[in-house]
Amino acid sequence: MPDRLAAPRPPRIALPAVLAGLALLATACGTSSAAEPEARTYSAEVRDVTVEVDGLERSYLLQPATGLERGETSALVVVLHQEGGTPEGVAAETGLAGLREQGATLAYPAGVDSSWDAGACCGTPKANGVDDVAFLEAVFADAAEQAPIDPDRTALVGYSSGGMLTYRYVCDRPGTLAAAVVVSGSLESPCGKQITTPDVLTVHGKSDGTIGFDQPKFIKALGLAPRPVVSTLGILTRSAGCSATPTTTQSAGAEVRRWKGCRGGEVQAHLVPDVGHGWATLDASRRTSEFLLTHLIDR
């Protein structure tokens, strides 16, 4: 039989070289485990921020939360101005800046030509098919890069046509918000049959000359008759599977209707008698702040 071939010997490695290599590896591992990522720092400075959406440069006013401890996160409240409004104007009119000290970051987006595409309304954005839902998504995402945001505590607040866009966002992006507030707004876009709602507060004056309470009113400047309050609430609550009949109480000069059993959060409406469209006359700053503290910031 032929001789068995001997297995080749592994190459010899000098022991000092092995020890040196092991020492180098141990040093590298020790350095890696000891190093900790630096905590990210955020600025509480009020500032204008720009984002690009669908090839358009858009902007929003950012008011970060104040007094956060290191590692804490804030709620995020995005506030939408009325037709013809501005971020600075609605920030002053709504008077929500005090929420910053309570742990909320505020963002005020600017509509194209001071308007929004909320469906059947309004102006240049509707005429040119501006995607304001995508813009709001970009604001939520970008604000989380600018400030330490808790993604489970985000809200939209909309006044007048800003309220129309708020309703559209609630219906188009169900389940993405923790809370929503609509003041003197109406639903002017389709709403799915099985949406999940956030906790919703709507505030309306029963003598509103723009958004009718139970009958539509044609508004020449808008070129449409906004959906009445009763119709909007009926569509929203049916879409969310809420109880057919709300409970009704009186509180702070308003008739308060609450719908239970909704998919998601509760829907409530504050209906103020003998009051029109205006934010201040509806006592909307107080109503909105109290609602957001309970249903968003302190949750």
Topology:
Blueprint: H1 15-34, E1 47-53, E2 56-63, E3 74-80, H2 87-94, E4 104-109, H3 123-128, H4 132-146, E5 149-159, H5 161-172, E6 179-183, E7 199-205, H6 229-239, E8 247-251, E9 254-259, E10 267-272, H7 284-297
Parallel strand pairs: 3-4, 3-5, 5-6, 6-7, 7-10
Antiparallel strand pairs: 1-2, 2-4, 8-9, 9-10
Describe this structure in words.
The protein has 299 residues and is of the alpha/beta class. The chain has one domain: 3-Layer(aba) Sandwich (Rossmann fold), CATH 3.40.50.1820. 29% of the residues lie in helices and 23% in strands. It has a ten-stranded mixed β-sheet with strand order 1-2-4-3-5-6-7-10-9-8, with helices on both faces. Strand 8 (247-251) and strand 9 (254-259) form a beta hairpin. The model is unreliable at 1-37 (pLDDT under 50).
How many DSSP helices?
A: 7
- The CATH superfamily turns out to be Alpha/Beta hydrolase fold, catalytic domain
Low-confidence stretches: 1-37
Instruction: Give helix and strand order, one letter per element, not per position.
Output: HEEEHEHHEHEEHEEEH
Percent helix, as a range, is 25-40%
Average pLDDT, all residues? 89
| Secondary structure: number of strands | 10
CATH architecture: 3-Layer(aba) Sandwich
CATH topology: Rossmann fold
Give the overall shape. globular
Tally of individual domains:
1
